[in-house]
Write a structure and sequence with these properties.
The structure is a homodimer. With about 300 residues, the first copy, chain A, is mainly α. Chain A has one domain: Farnesyl Diphosphate Synthase (Orthogonal Bundle), CATH 1.10.600.10. Helices cover about 70% and strands about 0% of the residues of chain A. The first copy, chain A, is built from 15 helices and 2 strands. In chain A, strand 1 and strand 2 form a beta hairpin.
Chain lengths: ~300, ~300
């Protein structure tokens, strides 16, 4: 295994810039009464967020010689889904969060109706972008990208996980159920990011097994790290309210395992994820660094 | 022009049954904590609604020899988008409606969070369904279906129209702006229904001009009829609260034209729509009847 260092920071900076630029370009103000909708979409999508999902797409796509432009478009679509889910999740009737990425959430900066609609419109925007021939000239690739994203986002993916998360407030879940919850709520979209990078690279489904395993493992590690940050992190660095799970008495990896075993489990998952990349050379170094960053980050 | 009679009623009954059956089959309860999400999706999609959009798909698709099974699947996807938009539109932060199709709205029967998530999951469900090879074996057809639906639903379609509708509560719109609002808010999805029926039938884009014109005209006629029903209709027959536009002082076709000119305009649009079908024979009779039904319906 190569000892990659220093690839991640410039990659995170570059993807943040590219994704901001992409949303700026693809979401022009229409200059009519829809302006308020597009303003809310721009407010939510630009200038914040770690852009982990787009980075997973571009890092994976680059391993298979895909143009950065195509990978950034696909990353923009996945980020649109991620951002729409945050907008809806922050609503007063959901998590009722007032701050996100260090600024007021969409329903605070605009209003609840604008937040519902901006989320819905970003949801469509993702599929509009993926169905565009400019994303890939190959309709088989486009359809597979769309199918992968739709399945990762809906009732058998992210939305299903969010409902489980709501049920977790009143029912006591065991470790396998919490694992399933997290695999759906955040793992599915992270896994889709890696998979869609590989789809862009024309990697056949049987060639994606290890990459999917990598994504599954870092997805769980990511969630455990999030739980630990929620317990031990700093609200200002996080840019959002913390320690809500504990206040709600919700079962998490942390409450079920305790901080020491949780931290150990996250480390083990990251090593396992890195091991799954052993058939790749230095072209997978960025994915390796990213896996380690997930448990070492402070926000 | 042929004098079709009696095709519509059995067609409406058949599509209502087929769409209910389709949602029943495609939305099985998962038997885990996601049950509540899928229960809300089933509650919202089954046993209500006129199913105008699926009927537009099946009626158009049948003109070009498409199997009913494929047309019903596409109709189910469009209806999922329509239903998700109703669920979100009925939320307290949007129109705050407590009754829909004569029963409590989703946020009343479940809660606001379940309504947001059920809408989001139905939104994905539509694209999942369209991307499935079972919908069409031809990836070019699937990708064109997806692109047409995404563009009709998002910021340049339904969501954009909904934001204009919110702005209309506080700004005074003129007739061209109200027309644009309605073309986006309801017209885009009705037009997409006809267009997607033609796409299933492999009708090339230049062969769809008259069908799109038909859909555009009946879309506006549909909205004028809705405005008239809102003014003159019976709440019990409608299954929802009426006379809200007037109470909000919102500009509509009706407020701008008055009831007599509005009714005349709706009739003219329907005749224009029927004229656009003149190159078709009896195979277009159902679309002709449907156009007339739109201005004559009482709910």
């Amino acid at each position: 295994m190569s000892q990659a260092t220093g690839l991640l920071k410039p990659a995170l900076n570059a993807i943040a810039e590219d994704i901001d630029h992409s949303f700026d370009l693809l979401l022009p103000l229409p200059g009519d009464p829809r302006n308020r909708l597009v303003e809310a979409m721009r407010y939510a999508t630009m200038g914040g967020g770690k852009r982990i999902r787009p980075l997973l797409v571009t890092a994976t796509a680059a391993m298979f010689g895909v143009s950065r432009e195509a990978a950034v478009r696909v990353g923009t679509a996945i980020e649109a889904i991620h951002v729409y889910s945050l907008i809806h999740d922050d609503l007063p009737c959901m998590d009722n969060d007032g701050t996100r990425h260090g600024k007021p959430t969409v329903h605070v900066a605009f209003d609840d109706a604008a937040a519902v609609l901006a989320g819905d419109a970003l949801h469509d925007f993702a599929f509009e972008l993926l169905s565009d021939p400019a994303t890939s000239g190959d309709p088989f690739v486009r359809i597979e990208l769309i199918r992968t994203l739709a399945m990762a986002s809906g009732m058998n993916g992210m939305c299903g996980g969010q409902m489980m998360d709501i049920v977790a407030e009143t029912e006591s879940f065991d470790l396998p159920t919490v694992t399933r919850l997290q695999q759906l709520k955040t793992g599915a979209l992270l896994a889709a990011s890696v998979e869609m990078g590989a789809i862009l690279g024309h990697v056949p489904i049987e060639g994606r097994t290890h990459l999917r395993g990598y994504a599954r493992d870092i997805g769980l590690a990511f969630q455990i790290a999030d739980d630990l940050l929620d317990l031990e992190g700093d609200e200002e660095t996080a840019g959002k309210a913390l320690r809500k799970d504990e206040a709600q008495g919700k079962q998490t990896f942390l409450s079920l395992l305790g901080p020491d075993r949780a931290r150990e489990q996250a480390r083990r998952l990251v090593e396992q994820a890195v091991d799954l990349l052993q058939s790749y050379g230095p072209e997978a170094d960025l994915l390796r660094e990213l896996a380690r960053f997930i448990v070492e980050r402070n926000h």
